[in-house]
Amino acid sequence: MKTKKGIIRVVFAILVLSLTLSIFAGTGFAQTKKFSKTAKTVKKIVEKRIRGKAKVTLLDEVDPKVIDGFKYIKLNIITDADNKTFGFYTNGKYIITGLADLKTGENVINYIRAISDTVNVEIRSDELIYGNVNAPVKIVVFSDFECPFCKRASKEIKGIIKKYENKVAIFYKHFPLSFHKHAELLAKIYEAGRKLGYKWDMYSYDFRNKNNDEILKIFENQLPKNKVVEFYKFLSSQEVIDKIERNKKEGQALGVKGTPYIIINRHPISGYQPNLILRILNMEIAKLKKR
């Protein structure tokens, strides 16, 4: 009888322990992520190639289910001088950097990266250009008003606004490129206009073959005469300058090299890729239906 009671106590203790571990696992206190043989192989190969001159850590592994055996692996590599994260679509033997979809002509690797990678970016109410700041799907756009691809992306975003009116909020961040001679001025004009309550569609204008004075005149002519002095005051204000600089530094910290750079619920899309924008957006909208 004692033996049976002892067995029952042991079994009960094991059940309690198992339940406790499962609770901690669910809250993130237990068990680190288990990586596949593919991921571990990639890590070993990288470690061998760098000959112990850096610390290599497996960060994440995603199976996008595009090609059997291939996974998207993320590694963090730390040296004395640098700390970088790299992503590979690999089977542990080969790395695929380009994978064309014959029907659409798209590079599927861009889609894999977009669904696998996430970035953190702070958003503020003064960057909101459409929607409610608390909307479930947040799109952050790093853009340049003189960039032709940003102009095209702006049209795509207008379509998104119409289709997902109550579910999407769009935030604009300035990233004027150094080789666009009017980009910095256009960013200041936009912010000065906002301060006066204007929402100018900067992409609807053609700034080619115009100097700065001619560009300023375009917007000055749209203002009541009693607002012109205030407009120029805002244009050169430290507040406007600081906002643009802050946006640029945020983009640089994320590794933004060109525009547009679009983030949909933390999923980054580099460059003008309208089909990819819609795919990621639809993926995030579909998640709302499951809630």
Molecular structure report:
The protein is an alpha+beta fold and 291 residues long. Helices cover 44% and strands 17% of the residues. It has helices at residues 2-27, 37-50, 108-116, 148-163, 183-195, 212-220, 228-235, 238-254, 274-290; strands at residues 55-62, 71-78, 83-90, 128-130, 137-143, 168-174, 261-264, 267-270. The protein has a five-stranded mixed sheet with strand order 4-6-5-7-8, with helices on both faces. A hairpin with a 2-residue loop joins β7 (261-264) and β8. α5 (183-195) packs across α7. It is elongated, with a radius of gyration of 25 Å. The model is unreliable at 10-31 (pLDDT under 50).
Which characteristics define this entry?
single chain, 291 residues, alpha+beta, 5-stranded mixed beta sheet, 3-stranded antiparallel beta sheet, 8 strands, 44% helix, 17% strand
The total count of helices amounts to 9
Ends apart, CA distance between termini:
51 Å
The profile of the biggest β sheet is: 5 strands, mixed
Uncertain runs are 10-31
Query: Helix/strand/pairing class, anyone?
Result: alpha+beta
Which whole number gives the mean pLDDT? 85
Helical residue percent? 40-55%
Q: What is the helix/strand order? A: HHEEEHEEHEHHHHEEH
Give the beta-strand count.
8
User: Gyration radius, to the nearest Å?
Assistant: 25 Å
Strand arrangement, major sheet: 4-6-5-7-8
Strand content: 15-25%
Shape: elongated
